[in-house]
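Box 3.1 A note on notation
Throughout this textbook, protein chains are presented in two layers. The first layer is the amino acid sequence; the second is a token string describing backbone geometry. Keep the layers aligned when reading.
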Amino acid sequence: MSTNLYSASVPVFKQMLLALGDVLSKAEAHAEMKKVDPAVLLQTRLAIDMFPLVRQVQIACDFAKSVPARLAGTDVPAYEDNEQNFAELKARIAKTVALLDTMTAAQFENSAALEIVLRPGTPKEKKLTGHAYLFAYGLPQFFFHVTTSYNLLRHVGVEIGKKDFMGSY
């Protein structure tokens, strides 16, 4: 039995992005309640060499839009990485969810065998089937950045739990 890559990607990306948006709302309320500059939360990181929260959210959105777009054979829309507050990050998430809402299962019909080339023309070029691209690269990358975003906020005291991470399903 083959895996339907639409069902394994688009609904998952949507669920987790919507949950991430809700977590960002809780972080914004936390900053207000604790009288913390929201910019401090947005620049939170656990180690000096890691991306801050704002970049983690941007990258999560990038994977949520680019992976299904490539599998569906459509252009990957470019987003500017200029978000500077919670409202702008939540707008980026909403824009990504709206993009996902335009995709149909029919667009993914032959995507499992599709060849996806990462970093084309570079020494790090890698060719993957659509199936491997989704399951071995795209989903793990996406979940890494969503989980890191959640953990950064939990680390600074935002009261969130597993239910917040999972969202509605």
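The chain is about 55% helix and 5% strand. The first strand starts at residue 115 and ends at 118.
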